[in-house]
Amino acid sequence: MSVDDSSAIRTRRSFLFVPGTGPEMFPKAVATRADIVCIDIEDAVAPQDKARSRAATLELLAARPSFGRSEVLVRINTLRSVDGFGDLLAMAEAPAPPTGLMLPKVKSPEELRLIDELLQGASGPLRLQVIIETNAALEACHEIARASARVDSLLFCGVDMAADLRVAPTWEGLLYARTRCVHAAAGGGIDLIDVPWLDLADMDGLAREAERCAAIGFTGGRDPSQATAGDRARFHPRSSRDRLCAAGGGGFRDGRHRPRGDRQQADREAGPALDAAHPRHRRCVFGSGAGLGCSAHAIRATRLFSAASL
Question: How many domains does the chain have?
Answer without folding.
Answer: 1
